Amino acid sequence: MVIGDPRSSGAPDRHDAGTGSLADYTYNLFPRFTSVVLRVAGSTPFQSELRELHESPSPPHEAFVERRPPAEDRVDAPMPVRLWIGSELSGMVGYVPRGLEAPVDACLGRLSDRGKGPRIPCTIVSTRHGLRVELGMGRAY
Question: Is 124 left (phi over 0), alpha (psi -120 to 50) or beta?
């Protein structure tokens, strides 16, 4: 631990906070463009899992995000993200970034209304700070 290191003080890692913007969605939380992506937060602890998935012969192309029950929605519980490997789920690979839970929940609701499974297109990308998962919110429909 280095003195003055933000990770030692409990401050969140700014490189692992996820990315996305509510401005990318219309008033009813529908993505404005098919290119809208949301980068998953909190992936640093799951780098070994992500590395295995990224290097596998058939890397996952769909993510699973469990919808929060109303009781957890009130306490603003995090929404964990997992990846589909064929018909099975991987371990956790991160969380939906704070403040962007509503568009993800709306997407899952629309998929459910259309009779589709809770699968959101995703890719594992390599950044300077490790592997990250990007959810293709604009391609989910």
Answer: beta
